[in-house]
Structure formats: structure tokens, C-alpha cells
Hints:
5-stranded mixed beta sheet, EC 3.2.2.28, Uracil-DNA Glycosylase, subunit E, alpha/beta, 16% strand, 5 strands, hydrolase
Amino acid sequence: MTPEELAAARDRTVPDVVADGLRVLFCGINPGLLTAHTGHHFARPGNRFWPALHASGFTPRQLAPAEQHKLLDYGLGITNVAPRATAKADELSEEELREGGRALVAKVRRYQPRWLAVAGITAYRTAFGERTARIGPQERVIGGTRIWALPNPSGLNAHWTPHTMAEEFARLRAAAAEG
């Protein structure tokens, strides 16, 4: 892929992978440029979303981003807080994240997943006005949907190793299996 192709992906959106009544609707911060170029969520090779999803037991094998539609077979889906693609998430304004949070609430009310899993604690805090939120289950609910804040799976998030990230995904998987 050329730098021009990546630049052309700026501000594009990527369709959600969503259906009614999912076990977990995963929510990224916003699409990166490679994701927007390919149309596949978490497409950057260094992103740890797909490995963590498999290592935690959500999927029987590691799916490739191009297989994202198979998530629906496992009762899983993907969306984003902010829809527009950027090179880095810090290019989003706080207002964009808050607006994305409002749109996300409407989406959750529409599709009614059992869990909404927001991958990125800072984005969750901003989008929902929860300045002291921590990784893990949240007190906030949207209708009957519980919320879990996950670590950002970007390879740039050095605070979380692939192992500890998979452990946190597994905690969510266990909670989602309980009901």
C-alpha cells in the first residue's frame, strides 16, 4: 500500500459488523487508516485485537481481519466510538468522542447486545463522561446492556502485554458466558 492510498483513507468510515442480540459488541476507538483502506476492523498487523480474541477463547482460531463477518457466528460484533478514520486516535476531539458516545448509546439500544466492550479506557472515559473509570466491568448500563472497558489493543499500548490483554478479554468472556 502506498502512502497516497493510506492518505486517501483519511476520514472514511468502516461498516459495523453487528446484529441484534449479540453476546458482545466490541467497540474500537475509531478506524485507523489501514482499517479504512481495507474495510476490515483492527487491520493493522501489530494490532492485538484478533490474537486476544482467540487467546481468550472467544473464537476457536485466530480470525484474520478479512474474516470479521465470521464474528457474527460467535455472537460477536464490532463498531467504533468515532466513525471517521485517522492516522492516530489522538486526532479525534473530545467532542467527537462525546458525540460518538451518544451515537453508541443509540446503537446499543437498537441492537441490544448483552455486553458492550469498549477497547480503550481513555476513549471510554471521554465518550461517557466517566473520568475515573478503570479497565473491567462498569457500573453504567444501557438498557439491559452491561459495559466492559478493555485495554486498547493497539501495538502502541505498551502497558498491556499480549498475555495480560488476553487475560482481560477472557474475564469478559467468562462474564458474557454467565448471562
